[in-house]
Each structure stands twice: as C-alpha cells, then as structure tokens.
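User: Modeling request: complex.
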Amino acid sequence: MANEVILLDFWPSMFGMRTRIALREKGVEFEYREEDLRNKSPLLLQMNPVHKKIPVLIHNGKSVNESIIQVQYIDEVWSHKNPLLPSDPYLKAQARFWADFIDKKMYDAQRKVWATKGEEQEAGKKEFIEILKTLETELGDKPYFAGDDFGYVDIALIGYYTWFPAYEKYGNFSIESECPKLIAWAKKCLERETVAKSLPDPEKVIGFVSELRKRFGLE
Amino acid sequence: MGNNEEVKLLGVWASPFSRRIEMALKLKGVSYEYLEEDLEKKSSLLLALSPIHKKIPILVHNGKTIIESHVILEYIDETWKHNPILPQDPYERSVARVFAKLVDEQIVNVGFVSLTKTEKGREGLIQQTRELIKCLEKELAGKDYFGGKTVGFLDFVAGSMIPFCLERAWEGMGVEMITEKEFPEYNKWVKKLKEVEIMVDCIPPREEHIKHMNHMGEKIRSA
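Assistant: Request completed. Predicted assembly structure:
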C-alpha cells in the first residue's frame, strides 16, 4: 500500500520543524504544504478542528496532531530505521520527560523575550536562560541528549535554535555566552542533512519576528 | 514481572495525577509502596528524587525515578507488558495521547483554573469547557471505554481528572458542566467506570474531595 504523507506546516514554526526532521530521519517521502495562518486552508480546519493549528501530519488520510506526538507516531510507524527513542523503557521515559519539559517551558518563555519589553522582557530573558541552562546541564558532555545517537529530545529542541539570533537581537543578549555547550550541540545537529534541510535560515526568522513586532506595536 | 521488583509511588490522596498511576499499577497487578506527600511540607525523599520539579507523582522502580504522570503511565505499560494500557496501533496511540493532553492542559485550564479565577465571563469559560468535553463525547461513541472493551490510558487520565476530580470541583462551584442530556456518551462512560473495581478502588473519597477542590479553588482565586 502506498504511503501518502502530507504535512501542513508554517515555515518558521519550531514545532513543524520537529516533524520535518523526524520524517526525513526515517526517509519518508512527504508532501509539504505551507499554510497561511491568517487564511487557514479547509484541509487544516477539517483535520485539526479543535485547535486549528499546525503542524498537522496526514498519513493515508488520517491526521495526527501535536508535533511531539507526531514524532512518536513517526517513530512507531517507521520503526525499522533510525529509532528516535531509546528501546530501554527507563531511557525512553527520560527522553519523554525532557521533550515534555521543552514543550511546556520553552514556548512561553521565548515569546516574552521578543514579544514584550521592559520588566516583563527582562523577567522573560532570565527565565529563558534558566531553562536553557537546565537543558545544558542535562546534556552534559554527551554529543546528544540520549548519548551517542541523535533523537527525540534533540528533535524537540533544535527548531528553537533558528530563533536564537532573533532572541539575541530583540532581547539584546548573547545566548552563546550563557550556554556555550548548548550552542555547540546545536551546531552539531545542524551538520545532519535531515536537520539542515528542515530548518529555515535564521535571518529569515529575524525578518518574520520583526514583522510580528511591528504588528504588536513594538517597533 | 518478578518478585524482586521494588516499586514506590509518591502521591497525594486528592491528586488525579497520582490516582491514575495507582489505577495503572492495579491493572498490571504490580505491588507497590504508596507514600503520601504533603505538598505544603515536601518530604526530603521527594526533594531528593525530583529536585527540579518537586512535584508528584513520582514512581521509583528498582531505584530508578520516573516523573510526569503521562511519562510514568507509558513507562509502566512498557515495563509490565501484560494488560496493555495504551492501544497497540500507532494511530490509536496518537489519538489517546492527543486527548490526554487536551484533558490535562486545556480542560483543566479553562474548566478549572480560569473558571475559578473569574467572576465575570463565567458563561464563556463554561461554554469553552463544554466544547472541549464534546471532543471526548465524540470519541466515546460506540465504545464502552476510551480503551474499547476495557479501561486504558485515556480512561485513567480522563477518569481521574474529570468525573472524579473536576466534576467534584464544579459541584462545589454550583456549575452543572456535563449534563446527561447534552453528553449521553460521557455519562454512560462514567456509570460504566463506577462498575470497574480498579477505578472504584483508586478514586478519592467524594465528600472530602469536594471540600478539598473548593479549598484549591480559593487558593487559585487568592493567588
């Protein structure tokens, strides 16, 4: 049976990037469809009626929502190649925990860094750096979060890296000086073709953030 | 499964997050030591096992610590493979996981945290909560439980959270959230849950729980 895989996505989305990477890691052919979030396609509204959000993964007509759940789904369906999660239940649980941590903490914190100003922004920056430092501690001296193999937690986090130059510009700080090991990890991830192909140019992301800031009246 | 397994669960009697772990352990027939925590005065064990998050539930299995209720449930399912908790099919699993997130993140936030905080705009929040519960209603059509013929992951997550926690809070607030008329499948499911020994054994006592949820509501309001 032919596998028909469609990904409804939005190019700067750090969530969509996860699914793109996972599909590429498994060598899955997929059709990428760019959504205009101010004019959502009927397919998006039909496939994710509750939240109307991207990314939406449509596999043989059935939709899977939520990027971190999509990555698990991809790992379970295309299980013969490049496992994204460890097989040991305890190591798997640790990977799930950290991906969940990233999912719960990163988005709101990073948003404060570029979408607010004054005291709120300073508090946001502080919180953001603390989260990155916690992740850096977890990474330790390992090449990837799970050890020698690129996987689930790396995939959950790496998309945010393309937004780092935007955070640094609008937050007026240096992430590398605070978290050098994390930056080294990110650069290593970017050496993988699956990651490089799935992430946008950070300069484009800065442009996108600038547009949003204008819309929010921040510049 | 062996006789040399050492399993401990740190939990709180009123917490749906630790109750659902008890349901899972019971389904698997795993013996465990339960340790009740006082969240106002966390034990040194809790702080040692989970120094960053300092939350319950915490599962300790042969010295290994696992935290976050969804992560723990999946760990239990992968470690003790009989009586599966999650569906076998990857698509069904993804659906269960998405709904579990819906329950613990959206329904809790709109239907409890926000509802507790606002005096005005209550009707709006109640409507929003009902819209979310309608998704669960649809999912239950034609099934005994979310897990199909037997209880599983989503029954534990949604069961511990909605009928045996949030509904008690809504009762205390004087809100009739999930009427039999509008939500026949949901109400049928709750009746069936009450016939399942694992569920009945693992839910907090009703009256005390209602008082506790009122107290939690007050805390949120004054925060």
